[in-house]
Design a protein that fits this description.
The protein is mainly alpha-helical. It is 56% helix and 4% strand. Helix 11 packs across helix 15, helix 14 runs antiparallel to helix 15 and helix 22 packs across helix 24. The relative contact order is 0.10. The structure holds fe (ii) ion (FE2) (2 copies).
């Protein structure tokens, strides 16, 4: 099982793509084996179509890295509970074939006894690989984690709730299982996207294999549905079987269309001041989560040149201002800020234990950055072109030019100076930026090559400044 929404496709989620075929995909139909096979095949074909569509791939790469990482975070509650919807699927005592099929899925989700293969652990590894360290899943702090959207918990809560009533909702659970497992045909999209952004795609990659519709969980889920309906038909007749089928399909559609996370992610603004340090970002997110009330609580207290109340509009600025005012001393857990949080301080109980630990980790990290937020990449400026680093970059670019044609990731579009009018901007694929320096003709090819390199590096530099690192060679 895995997510049905593409974690990076904020504006073009898989669910939305599927909704384009909504009438075909979700519409109820009376069960016959042929009709069931045909619908599953149609859904499979839709997923494959989207996986192979270069426009979809290009759309998946339109976001800054910070947005992709943010989406990885938002899918944590769902993916860190992978398998939980089947947590009561196996009753004690003699076991029916259907339960055994579903238990096989459950076992795989849990890693079949291998901790490192537990799907929730694999997702936790993914989170850590992008510097996201969430509180323990089983704590209140996790549920209250300020950076997580409420809608990140919708499907999770739904699956936990429905699995609590396993017997009552067994047909619906079968439908949910089918939707989750069959939907994994879509996952090459996620794998390709994460690879393009330099993020380890292991979680999605393993689901491409294990959930496959031929022998994997997709096939097992489909077989379980068929087996169950056959059993109901034999025991209670055709009408009862059709009633059970309606409930299965309700479960399928309910889970496939539930929640608003895709829409919420699309609306979530990309952080304007997102630095490469997750610690600073977590601090900023925590401060932002308190801004609604905190920005009204501090009266006329000034911090530097601004009222403290106003600093909540600029969390990163507030974090630096606290240091300039000596309220936070880099590396010193004896800083005044911690006394303010103490029993006799005005901020007693304003921060929970987890948040106080975050404050401590951040304060301890400060000496290495001298109290400043980690710097972002600097754009190339005119006049710097003669530097050794720049010249080395030109050598790299010229070397990679010959190898870049086959790189599928190079359909990514970058904005840079228009070759015909450098005062204006234009957008081209990486292939096209490289090709400015290919097949040169005329006497001054050295100059032409330098000009082409300058344009490509400026385009890359602009992209880096915008926070994206989707560029690979
Ligand atoms: Fe699965
Ligand atoms: Fe899984």
């Amino acid at each position: 099982m895995s997510v049905r929404l593409n974690p990076g496709s904020c504006s073009l989620s898989l669910q939305e793509l599927m909704m384009a075929d909504a009438e075909q995909v979700w519409r109820f139909f009376p069960f016959t084996q042929d009709a069931f096979d045909a619908r599953m095949q149609l859904i499979y074909d839709n997923y494959v179509r989207d996986n192979q569509d270069p426009d979809v791939f290009a759309a998946d790469l339109q976001f800054p890295l910070a947005k992709i990482i943010g989406n990885v975070l938002q899918f944590a509650p769902f993916n860190q509970l992978d398998g939980a919807w089947l947590r009561h699927i196996t009753p004690d005592g003699p076991l029916a074939n259907i339960n055994e099929l579903l238990f096989r899925i459950r076992m795989d989700e849990l890693g079949d006894g291998n901790v490192e293969q537990n799907h929730a652990n694999v997702y936790t590894d993914l989170l850590r690989s992008v510097n996201i360290y969430l509180p323990d899943l089983h704590t209140r702090a996790y549920a209250d984690y300020p950076a997580l959207l409420n809608s990140s918990f919708t499907t999770t809560v739904f699956l936990l709730a429905i699995s609590e009533f396993n017997d009552e909702f067994f047909p619906e659970l079968l439908g949910m299982t089918l939707e989750l497992e069959w939907g994994s045909v879509s996952l090459p999209r996620q794998v390709n996207q994460l690879i393009a952004y330099g993020i380890t795609p292991q979680y999605y990659k393993l689901h491409v294999g294990i959930d496959n519709a031929s022998e994997g969980h997709g096939a097992i889920a489909k077989e379980a549905v068929e087996m169950y309906l056959q059993m109901v038909r034999q025991q209670d007749g055709e009408d009862a079987m059709q009633t059970a089928w309606k409930r299965i399909w309700n479960g399928y559609v309910a889970f496939g269309t539930l929640g608003s996370l895709g829409a919420d992610l699309a609306e979530l603004p990309t952080p304007q001041d997102q630095g490469p340090s997750d610690l600073w970002n977590q601090m900023a997110a925590m401060i932002a989560s308190k801004a609604q009330y905190a920005s009204l609580m501090h009266g006329d207290i000034m911090l530097g040149e601004n009222r403290l109340n106003d600093w909540f509009e600029d969390p990163f600025g507030l974090l630096e201002a606290l240091q300039e005012a000596g309220i936070v001393v880099p590396g010193n857990l004896d800083s005044p800020i911690f006394r303010l949080m103490g029993f006799n301080g005005p901020m007693y109980k304003v921060f929970n234990d987890e948040q106080q630990r975050l404050w401590q980790r951040w304060v301890l990290s400060l000496p290495s950055t001298q109290g400043k937020r980690p710097p972002r990449l600097k754009a190339y400026k005119k006049g710097e072109a003669q530097s050794a680093v720049y010249n080395n970059m030109r050598i790299v670019v010229d070397m990679l030019r010959a190898r870049q044609q086959g790189a599928t990731g190079h359909i990514v579009r970058l904005q840079g100076p228009d070759p015909k009018n450098p005062d204006q901007k234009t957008t081209m694929t990486i292939h096209e930026w490289f090709n400015l320096g290919a097949n040169l003709v005329g006497d001054n090819q050295k100059e032409q090559l330098r000009e082409a390199d300058d344009l490509l590096l400026k385009a890359l530099s602009d992209e880096a400044t915008a926070g994206s690192s989707s560029v690979t060679c």
